Amino acid sequence: MIEYYDQLLSEEKEELKGIIQLLYRQTFILERKYDRREKRMQFNRDFRIRNRHLEFIREYFDISGIDVKEDSQDGIIYLQGETLLGDKVSKLITLYLLIMKLIYDEQMSSVSTSSQVFTTMGEIHEKLGSFRLLSKQPAVTEVRKSIAFLKRYQIIEPLDVLEELEGRSRILIYPTIHMVLLGDDARALLNTFTEAEDEHGDDETEI
Question: First vs last Cα of the chain: how many Å apart?
């Protein structure tokens, strides 16, 4: 493994280092991401670099007991392993995840030809209200913080400026939403939140 790294050019070493750090930081690397300037999905350069050094990256993470997995259907590379430390997330982020999973599944069941699912902040909050999980509108700063967190983990892509988030603000939900919820039934989990609302307040969860 060391021999492989030593034989790389300086530029390649920096690229490989960057990809390893990126995987550690955001868990997922998508094959295609939304380009806001072009207003369409574009091939992700990081994904190509990762493919070039796949065996080395797998061996590198394997030392720490972490697997590098690939979902070729949705074009996702991700880390999985018991030694991965998750970030603590707020209750609002957890609820956003569950609602987005619900929206993703609903749209995918009606449009099977695309893995792109779009929603708005208004629709997300409206659905949260239908489950009686939003007694009042969350603070704008908390909403921005939550959306920025989900963007960092490659779960969503805000299509409008974060500083100008409002009900009409558009959100692209990436297929990584499946990996986060590990196939759990989002509706059942939302019902659980509804039943436990008075008991748990603002508890944090781990992602």
Answer: 31
Q: What's the token pair of residue 103?
A: 């929206």
| Block residue for tokens 């999973």 | 101
How far apart CA 197 and CA 60 sit, in angstroms, is 42
At 20 the pLDDT is 94
pLDDT digit string (tens) for 183-197? Answer: 555 666 666 766 666
Task: Name the fold adopted by 88-206.
Answer: Arc Repressor Mutant, subunit A (1.10.10)
Predicted pLDDT at 185: 59
Q: Is the pTM of this model over 0.70?
A: yes
Residue ranges in 41-182 assigned as alpha helix (H) = 45-52, 54-62, 91-110, 121-130, 140-152, 177-181
> Which of 137, 153, 123 shows the shortest CA–CA distance to 92?
137
Give mean pLDDT, residues 63-77: 91
